[in-house]
Amino acid sequence: MFTLENYNMFLAVMAVTALIVFIALYFVKAGYGYLYNPKFGFPVPNKVAWVLMESPVFVAMAAMWWFSSAKFEVVPLILFLTFELHYFQRSFIFPLLMRGDSKMPLGIVLMGMTFNTFNAYVIGEWVSTATKAWVPSVFVTAVVMLIGYWTVIPTTVVSDSNLTPEHTLADVLDLVKAKGHSTVAITEDGSSTGKLLGIVTGRDYRVSRMDVTLPVITRFSGKDWVFVSIVHGIVVDFSVPFLVPLFCSL
Fold first, then answer.
1. This model's pTM is above 0.70
2. Element of type H or E holding 187
3. Are 250 and 135 in contact (CB under 8 A)?
4. Inter-residue contact 165 to 199 (CB < 8 Å)
5. How many CA atoms lie within 13 Å of 184's alpha carbon, on the beta-carbon side?
6. 29 neighbors 35 (Cβ within 8 angstroms)
7. Average pLDDT over residues 138-150
């Protein structure tokens, strides 16, 4: 049975676990991507691995919505459908668009599945039970989000920062430096009026992963800043689930 005390305890356990993992990844290289290491388990095709890791969020959120007493209220329903629309694309459509035949260790896949399931619980429990009430500002936010999703994003773009899917990360960084924009449009032919296939934002290319951030900080800033960076990462990662609902309720 849900209680706020149990929920807060679960968040505390997640925070401590994140701290342990964060520190561990400073000494152990994550065995996927360019750091692929077979010692983490049987190799799984990347597309299959992606579906296995992301789909638990879609399924878990659907289950939490179904068992929620507020599932047919207008605002929770809109937010739920918006969330599920995003994760349906992320879990089942995006893998079909992935290129290459790279592999991911089974151990990494299982860890990803576990984290995403817990993540779905944290978000779903807060949305369906912990907040209890839904203020008009949240409803407005959901409506604006849906309107923007279907009307604002065009099929063609006019931009001075465009690349094709064949370009590399180095090309992205060179273009960002030359144009001064943090976002680059990926179009079918690389032109300003080409069919929009996706976008690359600052979050995609900046150094932010735990397995690469700490070594970079250590090399260029010194070991004295390692602890500060760890605390900063924890504060950022675990303040978002609290700050977003707070701002939405204002």
1. no
2. strand 184-187
3. no
4. no
5. 27
6. yes
7. 57
